[in-house]
Amino acid sequence: MKSLWNEGEASALNNDLLKLRVYTSRLLGKEEDLVLHGGGNTSVKIKKTNIFGQEEDILYVKGSGWDLATIEEPGFAPVKLDALLALAELDELSDLEMVRNQRMAMIDPGAPNPSVEAILHALIPYTFVDHSHADAVVTISNTPNGRERIEELYGKNMLIVPYVMPGFILAKEIYNMTRGLDWDTIDGMILMNHGVFTFHADARESYERMIQIVSQAEDYLKSEGAQLIDEAAGTPANALQLAKLRRRISEVWKKPVLARNDHSPATVAFSNLSNIGEIANRGPLTPDHIIRTKRTPLILQHEADQDLSAFVANYNQYFDTYNQGETKLDQAPRWAVWPGHGAVSFGPAVKNLKIIEDVTRHTAKAIHQAEQLGGWKALPLDDLFEMEYWSLEQAKLKRAKKPLPMQGKVALVTGAAGGIGKACVESLVAEGAVVAALDINPAIVAAFDQNEVLGIQCDVTDMTQLEQAIHQTVSYFGGLDMLVTNAGIFPKSATIADMDGDLWQKSLDINVTSHQRLLQLAVPFLELGFEPAVVIIGSKNVPAPGPGASAYSVAKAGLTQLGRIAAMELGVKGIRVNIIHPNAVYDTAIWTDEILAARAKHYGLTIEQYKTNNVLRVEVTSRDVADLATLMLGPSFSKITGAQIPIDGGNDRVI
Ligand code: ZN
């Protein structure tokens, strides 16, 4: 591992201790092999003068909820050092009391909660303290003779701390171990099964000691012949099988969740190991990962239902064995190992999938390397249970915010690059859903710069492209629950007598046939969806047609009829189908200012009068239509199917 210290960048910080702390914390955070997603923590001790003119030693320690890779100055909680040192003198302190007292000792009540390791940071008598969960060091410690290996590797200049629970218990352990210790005689601390601490008066020195200690561990793994896994090609999981698995996991979890298949060559190779069912079940890389990944993955070796039942039974047994009155968590796995296809992560939001994927990739690497050092050995079950059911984690459950109503649900919207389609994507995402946004316009791929939206270029009149788009959606998000079938064109005006054959056919192809095909391809996935529902974007022209628009109106009437029949056919499968008839939605690409002005003038109206030319005298926007579509896909419409709802401000021909 290389030091990322850049003298130019660092000197620009003018020796500002907090700025330097932010700088080297981010250097640690950049290295996935050191810390992952909120793991690790850092601190700096700074003298500050308070409002009474007194000078105080303040520990600026990473605040909970911040990530070292992206931390900023406000991410460090300022806590009075003497208060933390006084807490360290106590014989006992519950974690909830510790958190409360740490908070009371802060000099900024608006700062985040200090890390649970704040007391430990306070005990280390150096300005800068760095703590990581370095893969290489933990890998070596997670072996049958890990302690001897660590001692052999680092010699006497390292304080080696046996595993205890993080928080006050760990701080107290260090307090006891370091009484009378001359700190200058040690280069750092190795916490067995947990990580590394380094410290120094100088920011660079503390950071670079970390890099050096970890490099030594990496070199040791190499010299002991602990190879990285030989990568293997695999095939992505079958979309329908993945959707089935996601459905079953959602049932166990009692809420819809997303799923994503990681079929990268290293993960596939891991999934193919002959003893995978045994080694993957021994436990996580560091105990804090259990909060993200649970203790073990689901191993798909038989029928998925059978494997999942075994997982749940196992979890229940583990809980019953160690439970001392804790609130039982859900019994759903957070990831699955799927031989030949790699791994699958499960989570209510896209960010959970990413975290689980990263954590499990690092875990897989560590397991494989430790196996070559005599065997992967995670912590015993009681230690892991203690972490999974830690009082602080249990307290978080009670404070958890209510999730957005569509969290964990997957939607697909066609014609999503602009107008009503784009607004539907935005409306669904605002309600917590993830969305596959399809459009023929290639700009769709980059149109939504957020992890919750997958932009797919797709010509909906091409059956092959449509099928690929649906499979891509399911591979990326795990399933399909909601469909907004919106893609359409408005052909230029022509009477029946003057109709151009191609124009007529094109309108039918896009405005009706493509919707039938999309439904046909989506039904097998919707059947596996969570409260599945479809919204079809019709038109006011269905109940109130106009001359010159036969190609459009006939197609939209056909589409409406398709929706009515779909409601009857799919209702038995629990899939709802409803239809929206919008009118006069002018905030779309086709309605330029010039066209609007010309149309208004034609009717002798101002633009404003023209836009609000309806019973309620209101303007209907794309977002109004989108919010209605989202409402109709949600629980408010759970007992409604086959309905047609106009959204037009009231039109006397429709009423
Ligand atoms: Zn830690």
In the predicted model, the low-confidence regions spanning at least 5 consecutive residues are none
User: How many runs of DSSP E, i.e. beta strands?
Assistant: 18
Count of all domains: 3
Radius of gyration: 30 Å
Enumerate the strands of the largest sheet in spatial order, edge to edge or round the barrel. 3-2-1-4-7-6-5
Provide the CATH architecture of the largest domain.
3-Layer(aba) Sandwich
* CATH H-level superfamily of the largest domain: Class II aldolase/adducin N-terminal domain
Helical proportion, percent range? 40-55%
Structural class determined from secondary elements: alpha/beta
What is the average of the pLDDT values? 94
Bound molecules: zinc ion
How many helices?
Answer: 25
For the sheet with most strands, the description reads: 7 strands, mixed
Distance between the termini: 72 Å
- CATH class of the largest domain reads Alpha Beta
Note down, in words, how this protein is organized.
The protein is α/β, with parallel strands linked by helices and 655 residues long. The chain has three domains: 7-223, Class II aldolase/adducin N-terminal domain (L-fuculose-1-phosphate Aldolase, 3-Layer(aba) Sandwich), CATH 3.40.225; 239-399, L-fuculose-1-phosphate Aldolase; 410-588 and 621-647, Rossmann fold (3-Layer(aba) Sandwich), CATH 3.40.50. Helix content is 44%, strand content 14%. It has 25 helices and 18 strands. The strands form three sheets. It has a seven-stranded mixed β-sheet, sandwiched between helices. The protein has a seven-stranded parallel β-sheet with strand order 14-13-12-15-16-17-18, sandwiched between helices. Strands 8-11-10-9 form a four-stranded mixed β-sheet, with helices on both faces. α6 (135-141) crosses α15, α10 (239-253) runs parallel beside α14 and α21 runs parallel beside α22 (550-571). The chain is elongated, with a radius of gyration of 30 Å. Bound molecules: zinc ion. Zinc ion binds at residues 131, 133, 166, 194-195.
